[in-house]
Amino acid sequence: MKIAIGCDHGALALKNKVAEHLQKKGHEVADCGTYTLDSCDYPDFAAAAARKVACGECERGIVLCTTGIGVSIAANKVKGIRCALLHDLMSARMTREHNDTNMMAIGAAVTGEMLALEIVDTWLGTEFSHGERHARRVEKVMALEKE
Which CATH number fits domain 2-146: 3.40.50.300, 3.40.50.360, 3.40.50.2000, 3.40.1400.10? Predict the structure, then answer.
């Protein structure tokens, strides 16, 4: 699977660990930055990753910042993106099964490395349920972009 990944300076170390983990699992990673610890603006990197997912260049995306909040908000502003801020395994599973999320966000100061990697694996390994009620709800969420 090709996965876009992006972060700000507050999550650079965790982004690099996640990218390395993904590559070891056989995934292709499109690294949208940042690449240094210099202060930067999270919307730039979250949007770059989200655009790669929205246009179909990447199947999924992962964005990170200190809390995960800013990057999740920014990613969700890109048409076609459903990004969930995750910090536990149940949410990682449920957001795929019920919401068919195509992006996830993690806060580097909120979630430790080992848990973050488990969340990534759970999220990537869980398929959308295609249940009628869940599909209907996802359609309603996506219709909000047209208002």
Answer: 3.40.1400.10
Q: pLDDT by residue (tens digit) across 19-53?
A: 999 999 999 999 999 999 999 999 999 999 999 99
Active site residue 130: no
The yes-or-no answer on residue 98 being catalytic is: yes
CA atoms within 13 A on the CB side of 42: 24
Indicate the domain borders of the chain.
Answer: 2-146
Q: Which of 7, 58, 65, 83 is catalytic?
A: 65
pTM (predicted TM-score)? 0.97
| Residue of 21, 87, 98, 134 marked active site | 98
Contacts of 25 (CB under 8 A, 6+ apart): 121
